Amino acid sequence: MSKTISYGRQTIDRTDVEAVTEVLISDYLTQGPLVKAFEKVLCEYTGSRYAVCCSSGTSALHLACLAAGIKDGDFVITSPITFVASANSILYTGGKPLFVDIDPDTMNMDIERLEETIKVSSRVRAIVPVHFAGLPCDMERIYRIAVERDIVVIEDACHALGAMWRGEDDRWYKVGASSHSHMTVFSFHPVKAITTGEGGAVTTNDRGLYERLKTLRDHGIIREPDRFIHMDSSIEPPPWYYEMQELGFNYRLTDLQCALGISQMRRIDEFVKRREEIACLYRELLSEYPFIKTPEVDENNYRSAWHLYPVRIDFDGLGIDKGSWFRAIAERGIRLQVHYIPVHLQPYYRKRFGYTWGDFPEAERHYLEEVSLPIYPLLTDDDVKTIVKEVVTTLTCASARLSV
Ligand SMILES: *Cc1c(COP(=O)(O)O)cnc(C)c1O
Predict the structure, then answer these.
(1) CB of 189 within 8 A of CB of 56?
(2) Average pLDDT over residues 67-73
(3) Which of 2, 7, 127, 133 has the highest local Cβ count within 10 Å?
(4) Which residues does 91 contact at the CB level (< 8 Å), separation at least 6?
(5) Which atom of ligand 1 is found nearest the CA of 130?
(6) Distance between Cα 78 and ligand 1 center (Å)
(7) What is the rounded average pLDDT of the residues 102-115?
């Protein structure tokens, strides 16, 4: 193969380049009119009342945890099968992540286990469900469990811009509408559904949370005169005046990045549709090979955004060393990825909280078997066919127990 295919990549066209170039020669590079414009686009697309864009998905998660009021000693539940940022953001606020093992069929947090964990722990302040690979969690159940106990729900939807699910009322809900959560977090890293380079956003329907998110994104600074503390409201404040009322951050997204975001959002439906087609083609082509387990989506009730195409292969059972096989297929131009090393097994988490192998068996089995096949809009049908052929050939070569 002549080109290298990686597990994910951005889709940039001329209109994106022009949109960014236009900003570059305009008056504002950072906090101009496009920040609000991008937030408006995100609201229109997700159906959420408010959106706050910020410098990355990670900073968006951090802001959401802060706005949720998570503080020292609070427990926050999340999945061990996620990017470290989901759990790290909890740590930034002084909270302690509690992991709930996954359901191997959906690869999302197991809701039965979530209920058990909540019952034994009284200090759970928030839940951060992760829509793994773009498949939404059962938000109706999660939200019900949470609301009963006054627990905040922050959806980590970094994989799931464009995903939907059908409610018990038969309506389709979009991820990001925050219809069954308090806040939803997105990432615009280049491998995600749309990109702004680095970038992220929080959507919410709660005015109070929206104000908190905006203030914390901007150093904790307030610029609206009616919210000033140290000014007599009957006197007009001087033009330069602003107040820092709490310790915030510079987590802002720039106009340059928002221009790219707005331009990308024009094609979001196209992007998701193409990812869906690729997932379909993979399923069809891989159905002949029972040793590769493809992800199953209950299409009557869920529409995945297909951020990843996670397959499971029983490497141990087949007598294949996963690492060697990974290197062999990379040499043939296909760079796969594994999502994820369970967060609780990261050295930092083991050392700090004493986690070890065996703590979350489904997540660990997932880690040993999971491989993410390339999926992104620019991948052609021929690319997909080549990938399947290479995966099957290299697996067969590596295993004494397989023959074509
Ligand atoms: C990408 C990602 C993040 C972090 O987003 P960044 O924009 O890279 O900071 C958080 N959670 C999940 C599940 C992600 O995939």
Answers:
(1) yes
(2) 96
(3) 127
(4) 97
(5) 13
(6) 14
(7) 97
